[in-house]
Amino acid sequence: MGIRVLIADDHHVVRRGLLFFLKTQKDIEVIGEAKDGAEAVELAQKLHPDVVLMDLVMPNMDGIEATKKLKELMPSTKVLILTSFSDQDHVIQGIRAGAVGYQLKDAEPDELVNAIFAVHRGESQLHPKVTSHVLTHLSSGNQQEQNPLEELTKREREVLTEIAKGKSNKEIASTLYITEKTVKTHVSNILAKLNLADRTQAALFAVKNGFVEQ
Q1: Does the UniProt entry include the keyword Coiled coil (predicted)?
Q2: CB–CB of 67/81 below 8 Å?
Q3: Most buried one in 68, 72, 135, 142, CB count within 10 A?
Q4: In the chain, where the domains are located
């Protein structure tokens, strides 16, 4: 029996391309497709894949949250993130969430196949472009414990400020000229980085740390 793979990506063309390619690979079997993180978690519990190819930015539940859920519910299932984002924020969040590997969508086909086999064996598999980010983060020591705000990007700080003002995702999107989907991703990242449970805690945190006047 081949490695059972579940594909999670909100772009139909990407899913179709991966399905077509992986079907030609020996010892790899695609058993399902999910268009968002929530569906990925649901299907994984039903189909029990060995490896989930997980996109990061998806509606309903993004790849970071879905990876955390799978790590909690199905620890034997390996998550291989497959995304277009190579910046340190996304890389570190993905690894912290429990992903075994992190690959970019511009990887060569053979690299993706090798990564699937590697994470199935339980080996860490990082795209060369993201390795330096991991090393930089590790060398920073206890940066998050010292000041979690340093982990926030400029845009995440802007979103946090708007959250503190009581604005909805739609209002924040309009103010910052970005999509609601992007706002939702930023909110998820903010909560994860600051170890906060919800928007209310985020708003209180922002006020306490001087993002807006009390």
Answers
A1: no
A2: yes
A3: 68
A4: 3-138, 147-207
Return all residues near 164 (Cβ < 8 A) that are at least 6 apart. Answer: 202, 203, 206, 207, 211, 212
Mean pLDDT, residues 186-197 taken together: 87
Interstrand relation of 78-83 and 3-8 (parallel, antiparallel or unpaired): unpaired
d(CA 59, CA 157): 22
The helices-and-strands tally (H runs, E runs) of the chain is 11, 6
3-class SS at 52? Answer: strand
pLDDT tens for each residue of 138-169 = 455 544 455 667 788 889 999 999 988 888 89
Average pLDDT for 121-145: 62
pLDDT tens digits along 92-104 = 788 888 888 899 9
Q: Which residue has the higher pLDDT, 202 or 148?
A: 202
Q: What is the 3-state secondary structure (H, E, C) of 62-85?
A: CHHHHHHHHHHHCCCCEEEEEECC
CATH, domain range 3-138: 3.40.50.2300
